[in-house]
Amino acid sequence: MVLGIGWTINHIFSLFRRCIYVILSVGPIPNHIAFILDGNRRYAKKHKLREGAGHNIGFLSLTSMLQCCYELGVKHVTIYAFSIDNFKRRPEEIRYLMDLMQEKIEFLPKEENLVNRLGIRVQFFGNLKLLSEGARDSAQSAMSATATNSKAFLSICVAYTSTHEIVHAVEQVCKEKKQRKAWNEHVNLDDVERQMYLANIPEPDILVRTSGANRLSNFLLWQSAYAHLYSPSALWPEISFWHLIWMVLNYQRNYGYLEKQQQNMDHVNVFGRSNP
Ligand code: FPP
Ligand code: MG
């Protein structure tokens, strides 16, 4: 009986979501949304839960948000799951978060999971050597298990900071030029972009940071030049379908302006980037 009511409510809500998607699809749908999942510990504190529970609930919010984004037609979602700076936290907290990540990542490629149902390719970006062995192995397995999926993409930035990504890319460019003995060649924008971790992922259209902070905290600095920024006051575990609707409506309202900025920049092209 209770199960029956639960199923009916779920079914009605799913129909309702689909109606909203049809309405939103009258305007441009973002191709890529990036999320900074901030406010998990504060959520646990606010609800007097044990430490770590906020991150656990945060993972559930992530799953529902991913489902809504992909249902809406967003092709790429990128999340900031763990920054290099997060390694400065207390050892117990780091251990807990690594174990949690390992558990959640292992679950990603399971048959009944969203990733498989929707044909999502999962990729991890960052200095994966810094992860615990278990988390790193589960990340590698999830990447291999989903390598042939291509309906949508989930990029998980772990042990990541944007400045590390840029330095790593420049190092790779220098290595490559050294190998070719191209000593006199200048380093240009295309060279660096080709070596970025997220080289094959389009730039984000919307960048979301929960918990009301207006900082990028070293996330996608290179890629977010024209992204529409959205920072709801909700803590990450509180993020919901309604936030998604609101951010997409705002993105659509600013779409003309963002497009124009992008075109102007492609036109000016002072750094030697080759225009498509
Ligand atoms: C920041 O909140 C968030 C994190 C350090 C990790 C968030 C990760 C998840 C919710 C799950 C990731 C899942 C996968 C599959 C990789 P915070 O700890 O800074 O919270 P605070 O701002 O309240 O202190
Ligand atoms: Mg935080």
Short characterization:
It is an enzyme of class 2 (transferase). The protein is an alpha/beta fold.
Task: Give an overview of the whole structure.
The chain is α/β, with parallel strands linked by helices and 276 residues long. The chain contains nine helices and six strands, in the order αβααβααβαβααββα. A six-stranded parallel β-sheet has the order 3-4-2-1-5-6, with helices on both faces. Helix 6 links the parallel strand 3 and strand 4. The radius of gyration is 20 Å and the shape is globular. The structure holds farnesyl diphosphate and magnesium ion. Farnesyl diphosphate is lined by residues 37-42, 55, 58-59, 62, 81-82, 86, 101, 104-105, 156, 211.
Summarize the helices and strands and which ones pair or pack.
Layout: H1 2-24, E1 32-36, H2 40-46, H3 53-72, E2 76-83, H4 91-107, H5 114-117, E3 120-125, H6 133-145, E4 152-160, H7 162-179, H8 189-195, E5 206-209, E6 228-230, H9 241-268
Parallel strand pairs: 1-2, 1-5, 2-4, 3-4, 5-6
Helix pairs in contact: 2-3, 4-6, 7-8
The structure holds farnesyl diphosphate and magnesium ion (MG).
Farnesyl diphosphate is lined by residues 37-42, 55, 58-59, 62, 81-82, 86, 101, 104-105, 156, 211.
Question: What characteristics describe this protein?
Answer:
276 residues, Undecaprenyl pyrophosphate synthetase, globular, binds farnesyl diphosphate, binds magnesium ion, Alkyl transferase, ditrans,polycis-polyprenyl diphosphate synthase [(2E,6E)-farnesyl diphosphate specific] activity, UPP_synth-like_CS
